[in-house]
Amino acid sequence: MSKFAIRLLTLAMFSMALLAAPMFASVCAAGGDPTPSSSPPPTDSKPAAKSKKKTSELSPGSEDAAFVKGYRAAYAAIYDRNDYASAIEQLKALGHDDNAAVANLIGYSYRKLGDYKVSQLWYERALKADPDHVKTWQYYGLWQVEQGNRDQAQYHLSRIAALTGTNSEEYRSLAAALEKPPGTGLVY
């Protein structure tokens, strides 16, 4: 099997693992962003190996381990410490900006910092990388609610329903946000 095919297969497996992993368990009482129920992917998972530079110091699979370690650190910066600026730096340093999970967390962090225009660009980048990335549809939908774009948020909700059904945490979170009256000043 060629190196390209192996990398493509690894990327597909990693993407499926990210989609299948229940990263968020509950919606905040005010319809806010969910709090994580578990940590990011375990270190024994097989994320994509898309390093732009390969040095002789890297053994096979070490770039995967480095990616997972960096992703976990950024995840902790976001959900444990609410240190969004640091998380953005850490995620960008991974060199996987076109990975939907990475781009989504960068967008989420910019949204939490109040930079909605940059946040939007990252959400769109995540969806370009993976149009079926449910977490991006949820977070971008919450972004739409915050911006007063309820029709657009409703579209995002319908995409989530098509991908996961109406019982998923992502669907329930965005649906709860849409149930709140417009202009209530809620932050998701």
TrEMBL record:
<feature type="region of interest" description="Disordered">
    <location>
        <begin position="31"/>
        <end position="61"/>
    </location>
</feature>
<dbReference type="InterPro" id="IPR013105">
    <property type="entry name" value="TPR_2"/>
</dbReference>
<feature type="signal peptide">
    <location>
        <begin position="1"/>
        <end position="20"/>
    </location>
</feature>
<protein>
    <submittedName>
        <fullName>Tetratricopeptide repeat-containing protein</fullName>
    </submittedName>
</protein>
<feature type="repeat" description="TPR">
    <location>
        <begin position="100"/>
        <end position="133"/>
    </location>
</feature>
<dbReference type="InterPro" id="IPR019734">
    <property type="entry name" value="TPR_rpt"/>
</dbReference>
<keyword id="KW-0802">TPR repeat</keyword>
<keyword id="KW-0732">Signal</keyword>
<dbReference type="Pfam" id="PF07719">
    <property type="entry name" value="TPR_2"/>
</dbReference>
<keyword id="KW-0677">Repeat</keyword>
<dbReference type="InterPro" id="IPR011990">
    <property type="entry name" value="TPR-like_helical_dom_sf"/>
</dbReference>
